[in-house]
Amino acid sequence: MAQSLNTKVDYNGKAIAYLGFPQYGQIMIGDRAFEFFDDRDVEKNMQFPWNSIKVVEGDVTKSLKGEYQIGRQFYVVFANGQKVRFSSKESGKILRIIRQYIGNERVVKSKRFSSTITSIFKRRKKED
Question: What is the pTM of this model?
Answer without folding.
Answer: 0.80
